[in-house]
Amino acid sequence: MKRVVTALALIPIVVYVVLWANFWIFLAVLAGVACLCYREFDGIAAGYGYGAPGPMGYGAGLLLLVVDRDAWILLTAVALVSLALAMRAENLGTSLPGAALRLMGIVYIFGTWKCAIPLRDRNAHWLMFALLVNWAGDIGAYYVGRGLGRHRLAQRISPKKTWEGAAGSVVASALIAGGYLLRFVGGLTVAQVLAVTVAANVAGQVGDLAESAMKRGANVKDSGTLLPGHGGMLDRVDSTLFALPVVYAYLRFVG
Questions:
Q1: Largest CB tally within 10 Å, which of 49, 73, 93, 241?
Q2: Residues with Cβ < 8 Å from 53, sequence gap 6 or more?
Q3: Residue 81: other Cβ atoms inside 10 A
């Protein structure tokens, strides 16, 4: 019940921010969500014993969100500074893994959320579609997996997930998110819509498993407790973080 109530409270806010809010409100919300996700990633990363990536990631990540060009220069600078700071570590055996965790967190959280900006600039419905892919997919996976699930998808990482649920996720995304894209974004064939929807859904399912693997490696059940019934913010958007770059790449290189 908590899960449903939380979703019902959040969905109208997300829809408003994506479709109707001005750019600065959108950017502020995006930055806030990204920082919450990074905070939870920071806690998971600390569980590996190499030290938490720390506050530097927030500043570098926010810069990554707003720079328009040559973001690779910023990421290169972050990598070099992280390596330089690693020399101060009391245990030098943790210096390189610690620096790597910081850089990965910035790319994983802020780099993926950055894709939301050009998607919304192109057409707000593209961003709404990218979010809807995983919302619909989660519903399909839950009900199909609960009713028909027999074959485990990744038992070592997430024992409750099944191949049947994964297939239900793809179908639900194709019907709901694909239908949304056909209705609100013009100039696309059914084949194109199916291709980008299925690709984004599969990427999202991989993202869900990737976050589960990270948590298991750190012996953490949930990334946080911010969202009742869902866990942390990162638990709620782990699929979206992988789906956003796929939808952006489709528009950038194909569409």
A1: 241
A2: 41, 42, 45, 98, 101, 102, 105
A3: 15
Which pairing describes strands 152-154 and 158-162: parallel, antiparallel, or unpaired?
antiparallel
List pLDDT tens digits, range 56-102.
889 999 999 988 777 888 889 888 888 887 777 677 777 788 888 88
Q: Which residues pair with 227 in a beta bridge?
A: 231
Q: Whose structure tokens read 């059914």?
A: 190
pTM here is 0.91
Q: Which two tokens stand for residue 58?
A: 């927030």
CA dihedral 63, 86, 39, 18 (to 10 degrees): 20
> 45-67 burial, b if ≥16 CB within 10 A, otherwise e?
bbebebbbbbeebbebbbebbee
Q: What is the DSSP letter of 225?
A: S
pLDDT tens digits for 2-42?
566 666 778 899 999 999 999 999 999 999 999 999 999 99
Q: Hey, is 188 helix, strand or coil?
A: coil
CA distance 59 to 35: 10
With tokens 């990737």, the residue in question is 210
Contact 124, 17 (CB under 8 A): no
DSSP E strand stretches across 121-196:
152-154, 158-162
- The residue behind tokens 């998808």 is 153
Is residue 165 a contact partner of residue 144, using CB atoms and an 8 Å limit? yes
